[in-house]
Amino acid sequence: MRQKINFSNTVTDNNYYFDDIEPPLTNKEAMEEASRCLYCYNAPCITACPTHINIPNFIRKISTNNLQGAAESILEENIFGGSCARVCPTEILCEHACVRNTHPESNPVKIGLLQRHAIDNLQGEYPFTRKSDTNKKIAIIGAGPTGISCAHKLAQLGHSIDIFEKESKVGGLNEYGIAAYKLVDNYSELEINKILAIGNINVFTKKTLGENFFLDDLLDQYHAVFIAIGLAKSKKLNIPGELQPNVLDATCFIHTIRQHQVQQNLNGKSAIVIGGGNTAVDVTVQLKKLGAGKVTLAYRRGHQHMSATLKEQQLAQLHDVHKETWFNPVKIAPLTNKKLAVTFDIHIPETPKETVTLTADYVFKAIGQNLSTQPLFKNNQNILSVQQYRIAVNDNYQTSLPGVFAGGDCISKGQDLTVYAVQQGKEAAENIHAYITGN
Questions:
Q1: Do residues 155 and 224 share a domain?
Q2: Of 149, 160, 174, which is closest to residue 76 (Cα–Cα)?
Q3: Fewest CB within a 10 Å sphere: which of 87, 140, 219, 329?
Q4: Are residues 291 and 352 in the same domain?
Q5: 177 and 263 share a domain?
Q6: For the segment 85-104, what is each residue's pLDDT rounded down to a tens digit?
Q7: What is the pTM assigned to this prediction?
Q8: CA dihedral 254, 258, 259, 265 (to 10 degrees)
């Protein structure tokens, strides 16, 4: 069950929206930026893009004011091109590989913003059609970027798809797990609607695997099953005091803000966010944007070990987030004034161990997630092979069970990023197609 998060004197404001963290390019700016591209023959940016978008191709089309063609080139490889343009860490992928990123210029082409410019200016529906009906049905569990990407590709190939989603809305990570200031103005839902417009994709919400249905049911009714359930179980700190009322899951907090668009009564409140990944940084920045006072990011190792990108860490710094490294939490205790006292052991290498206690109104846990432990079969046995707390698959995304495939965050393949999720859904669809057609 999702953790309920209630702040005292919460102010609901359905008209409250966050501004774009990085505003879109104007047409003039896009034309000028596109002119900087060298249109490399063996473009390293294409290789660096997990979905292998032909980046020089779409940028050239922008430079000739062919925004429709540019958008179509992007969507052909990445059906989530709009959201990826907003949330993808381009600084460690395509833009990192850009030849203009080398010394002395060290200023890559703004590929992400150009991609957004093209998609945002696409006229009409997404340009895809379905092949003739194959009379094959596939069940997909999870309506996040991986599941939707897989469904769209399978629909193109002529198959019928039923998607089962545990939440009340479609979108998965994009809808529930990305900070509100990164995907503003209900963009996730608008993008999903355009993707599903291809047809023959039915979505059933509030359907949870292991509660409302089981894999046994699906295998009896469908030619194949694709599992894209993500990682729904937040990891625990396993320290005393973790169950205090104001010790909260970071993902649940982001979920609350995104879905209710409420401005919490956080003015002047203090918070400690435990973790070192992008989600941890998202929470710190989100808190500051909601008016929080002192926000501290506490990480158990050094800053060089943090999985949050340098750009994300700089964003936190710009929002006056305090960062403490080598802080390992050992205890959380309540104080008489309703604050929390968090005790940390400081383990800086080659220095004597210290202990320090920080106080805050709220503590957020952002130390990662694991696969849900819900039973997958009616007999309460999980017979799918699991590796490192994730579903094990082969190179074709096949699980240990015939006819069952899996992709996205719930498998050990690629990074936990939307762009990787999209690519895995696309690749899995091609393998599912080959499986059910006997090719």
A1: yes
A2: 149
A3: 219
A4: yes
A5: no
A6: 999 999 999 999 999 988 88
A7: 0.91
A8: 80
